[in-house]
Amino acid sequence: MSIPAEGDIVDVLRHQHEELKQTMTEVETSTGLARAEAFGRVIALLETHERSEQRVVHPTTRETPGGAEIAEERVAEEEEADEVLAELRELGTDDPDFPARFTVFRESVIEHAQHEEDEEFPVLRATLPADQLLGMADELRAVQART
User: Fold this and answer.
1) What pTM, to 2 d.p., does this model score?
2) CA distances from 22 to 39, 80, 110, 116 (A)
3) Which of 34, 38, 48, 138 could be bridged to 27 by S-S, CB 3.0 to 4.6 A?
4) d(CA 53, CA 9)
5) Please, are residues 82 and 131 in contact by the beta-carbon 8 Å criterion?
6) How far is it, in rounded angstroms, from Cα 140 to Cα 17?
7) CB neighbours of 69 closer than 8 A, spacing ≥ 6?
8) Where are the alpha helices (DSSP H) in 32-97?
């Protein structure tokens, strides 16, 4: 997962959402070994991204006015995605059902990212000072560099 050197936490996460979307498109448009490799990258991207959000972003969101419910909804979506991802891993990219099931998964991940961008990120930007948002980006970079 690329970690932009510039920007606050929202900028970094939006960049990573775009990277994830592009990689999921690779899974959908490829076959054979190329699909398997792209799917492996999706797994790694999601694991790194979600783990670091759960350590850095969601706890801070919970502390903002009205943020507890937003954070809990995002965590629930991430847990659901983890379950579907495990099913896809078990199914394997060569299974005839994989493309259709992956497409449904991709749509749910994109919807989750949109919820973050529409609900969680505006709360962070509206309630936290710029230096804290920049510090969160640095903390996220550190967490992701260790994984």
Assistant:
1) 0.90
2) 11, 21, 11, 18
3) 38
4) 10
5) no
6) 14
7) none
8) 32-52, 58-63, 67-91
